[in-house]
Specification:
The chain is mainly alpha-helical and 93 residues long. The chain contains 6 helices and no strands.
Length: 93
């Protein structure tokens, strides 16, 4: 099964109503060298929702906020920063 078939037939239907799930599918392949032709094929494919098409294109665009967000998924949280945030907002509550 090719990558295009996988995205259209498996990833898109399984994550049709769940953006975070869709982003996790994209995270697996975001560093692949996707040709402009493949990206245009997916962007014009009617089996993907409008959100999936737009976010797919943004995910494979360098320095886009969507790409940065997807790459940041599952990154480890630094405990010191988390503790500082808790202290900062606990005092205000």
């Amino acid at each position: 099964m090719s990558w295009l078939d996988y995205i259209v037939n498996i990833a898109a239907p399984h994550s049709k109503y769940d953006a975070l799930h869709w982003f996790r599918y994209l995270r697996k392949d975001i560093n692949r060298n996707i040709s402009e032709e493949q990206l245009n094929f997916l962007y014009n494919d009617k089996r993907l929702t409008a959100f999936q098409r737009v976010s797919l294109k943004a995910a494979f665009t360098e320095n886009s906020p969507t790409r940065k967000y997807i790459l940041g998924l599952n990154s480890k949280v630094i405990p010191n920063k988390l503790q500082l945030l808790r202290e900062k907002y606990d005092n205000k509550l």
